[in-house]
UniProtKB/TrEMBL annotation:
<dbReference type="InterPro" id="IPR003594">
    <property type="entry name" value="HATPase_dom"/>
</dbReference>
<dbReference type="InterPro" id="IPR036097">
    <property type="entry name" value="HisK_dim/P_sf"/>
</dbReference>
<dbReference type="InterPro" id="IPR003661">
    <property type="entry name" value="HisK_dim/P_dom"/>
</dbReference>
<keyword id="KW-0472">Membrane</keyword>
<dbReference type="Pfam" id="PF02518">
    <property type="entry name" value="HATPase_c"/>
</dbReference>
<dbReference type="InterPro" id="IPR050351">
    <property type="entry name" value="BphY/WalK/GraS-like"/>
</dbReference>
<dbReference type="GO" id="GO:0016301">
    <property type="term" value="F:kinase activity"/>
</dbReference>
<keyword id="KW-0808">Transferase</keyword>
<protein>
    <recommendedName>
        <fullName>histidine kinase</fullName>
        <ecNumber>2.7.13.3</ecNumber>
    </recommendedName>
</protein>
<feature type="domain" description="PAC">
    <location>
        <begin position="1"/>
        <end position="45"/>
    </location>
</feature>
<dbReference type="InterPro" id="IPR035965">
    <property type="entry name" value="PAS-like_dom_sf"/>
</dbReference>
<keyword id="KW-0418">Kinase</keyword>
<dbReference type="InterPro" id="IPR036890">
    <property type="entry name" value="HATPase_C_sf"/>
</dbReference>
<dbReference type="Pfam" id="PF00512">
    <property type="entry name" value="HisKA"/>
</dbReference>
<dbReference type="InterPro" id="IPR000700">
    <property type="entry name" value="PAS-assoc_C"/>
</dbReference>
<keyword id="KW-0597">Phosphoprotein</keyword>
<keyword id="KW-0902">Two-component regulatory system</keyword>
């Protein structure tokens, strides 16, 4: 600004051509987007605050449910243990959603820290599969190839990437279909792939699904709940490890999601 203040702008640059179509200059339009940026920050702070507040009652509720589960597990009424297990599953889902929003808000305000340590990817993948099978196995999850390699990465955050890719494979494919996860060492990277035989998507959706809040709009996906933040968070986590993440897919045939982490 004239008074020396710095502001955020969005810049459009277009070519100016002469009558022969030769570029003879450029025109620039700068728009002040400070208010839009402030709105973003306010929205993020609000999402962060609400998610944080929602966690407290949810944590107590989960603890109460666990005690109740223990106390009523041997009751004669067969409805009770089943209902409690389903209630627990829903609580877990709600917890995951709230954590997702909390992480988006942390990420955007630069509060996500990557804490790297050495671990074996195979152990992590097996843990995630076991955890998913525990909450009701609806699909066949196969792990035909998993190279035993140590990676230097943030274990918890990579856990959430693998969990997200596997949960999506389950969410977006028919019950009892197969999901295949592999983990291969190449020269410089460790490459993890998650394949499903589900809905799939068009090629241009394969890029956009990593954008914040982006979901594929179709008659098949409309009834599947979600907010489009899982892949956005996963992509950010992988990028902060200097890794790559992408998807290959064919409509109605299935999808394969890949992510890689640099080695050594
Ligand atoms: P959510 O599943 O909550 O919508 P994600 O960020 O995890 O959020 O996924 C974004 C979108 O990408 C989903 O809404 C879905 O349209 C698409 N998608 C993700 N994984 C798959 C998959 N395995 N098969 C087909 N579509 C998928």
């Amino acid at each position: 600004m004239k008074d020396g203040r710095l502001i955020d702008v969005s810049l459009s640059i277009s070519p100016i051509r002469d009558t022969n179509g030769k570029i003879i200059g450029v025109s620039q339009i700068a728009r002040d987007i400070s208010e839009r940026k402030r709105d973003e920050i306010r929205k993020n702070d609000f999402i962060g605050m609400v998610s944080h507040e929602l966690k407290t009652p949810l944590t107590s509720l989960t603890a109460i449910m666990q005690v109740l589960h223990k106390k009523l597990n041997n009751t004669d009424d067969r409805f009770v243990p089943d209902a409690l297990a389903r209630a627990n599953q829903q609580l877990k889902r709600m917890g995951n959603l709230i954590n997702g929003f909390l992480n988006v808000s942390r990420l955007e305000s630069g509060k996500i820290v990557i804490e790297k340590r050495l671990f074996i990817m195979e152990d992590l993948i097996k843990e995630v599969i076991a955890e998913i099978n525990l909450t009701g196995a609806t699909h066949m999850i196969e792990l035909p190839r998993c190279d035993k390699v140590e990676v230097f990465a943030d274990r918890d955050k990579i856990n959430s990437v693998v969990t997200n890719l596997l949960s999506n494979a389950i969410k977006y494919s028919p019950k009892a279909s197969q999901i295949t996860i592999t983990c291969e060492q190449t020269q410089e990277e460790l490459l993890v792939s998650v394949n499903d035989e589900g809905l799939g998507m068009k090629a241009d959706d394969c890029e956009r699904i990593f954008d914040r809040y982006h979901r594929v709009e179709s008659d098949d996906t409309r009834h599947i709940s979600g907010f489009g933040i899982g892949l956005y968070l996963s992509a950010e986590i992988v990028k902060r490890h200097d890794g790559r993440i992408w998807a290959e897919s064919e409509l109605s045939k299935g999808s394969t999601f890949y992510f890689s982490l640099p080695l050594g």
